Amino acid sequence: MIETFKNEVKKGLEANPKTLPSKYFYDKKGDALFVEIMNLPEYYLTRSELDIFKNKTQQLIQTFDLKKDTYFELIELGAGDGLKTKELLKKLDSQNFKFDYFPIDISANALHLLKEDLNTAIPNLSVKTQQGDYFEVLDSLKESKKPKVILFLGSNIGNMTDDLASEFIYKLGANLLAGDKLLLGVDLIKSEEIVLPAYNDSKGITAAFNINLLDRINRELKSDFNLNNFKHQPEYDEKDGVAKSFIISTVEQSVEVKTIGKTYHFAKGEKIHTEISRKYNDELIEKIIENTDFSIENKIMDSKGYFADYVLIR
Ligand code: AVI
């Protein structure tokens, strides 16, 4: 794990322009900062998808086309605190659907808390937490042959390039059977006035989330990034719908990363690209699933039209 981190940081800092992978945002501090981000007034994404799960639950259930006498599996990739999913689970439970809920997450702690919370909120619900890699868990669930609904929410797909997103969805399809469903939650392309503040909040939480990556490298790879000499900078291009986060070196400086055994030079104003947060429309989603085994069955939007949950069928 630490070897992979080291190699990816090395590769990123030696690239031109410099990059660092956003998946490394999520250490303990990064997880806590992301929870804060989801509660920020500017970060509309979580609230928008929650609106769908609260107010369009019946529509979601209808497009899943579930039979009350057939046991199925509801599998969530990156379940976190399950805030949105709980709305769906409550409805399914009250309507006497028969199913197991499999939340998959990297964090054993998040899964433990989620299970405790659900056991209290929905005592009848069968919760089978799965800690680990999405594809390893899906592979182990293949055997059951029960109909499956996969949830991949929160526009998490947007942190991948379109090629990687396509490959990811293709691989999901390879673990499913014909008729299985994938609920893909994505942020929609909209104006800069709405998107940019979501990645540049007034309290500076997103800035801390981005800069924490350098702090993590300092701690885990023994480097000497002076965090005061770097700042967070988001950019958003409304035409292509891609928000990008950068870390900018505010002075000319050199940084030694001891475990890599190298010193990296930064010019004043030089950027490190740390994240993409893609926004979508129908055309982009169609393109991404073009070479997968899925087709679009439905699209459910929040009341403001900010966010969409696409129901894809295998
Ligand atoms: C997890 N992911 C969908 C978030 C996003 O909106 O791209 C991560 C994030 N980065 C900055 N703020 C939130």
UniProtKB/TrEMBL annotation:
Keyword vocabulary terms for this entry: Methyltransferase, Transferase
Pfam families, A to Z: Methyltransf_33
Location of the Histidine-specific methyltransferase SAM-dependent domain: 5-312
Domain of life, per lineage: Bacteria
Classification via SUPFAM superfamilies: S-adenosyl-L-methionine-dependent methyltransferases
InterPro entries: EgtD_Methyltrsf_superfamily (IPR051128), MeTrfase_dom (IPR019257), MeTrfase_EgtD-like (IPR017804), SAM-dependent_MTases_sf (IPR029063)
Name of protein: L-histidine N(Alpha)-methyltransferase
Source organism of the structure: Aureibaculum flavum
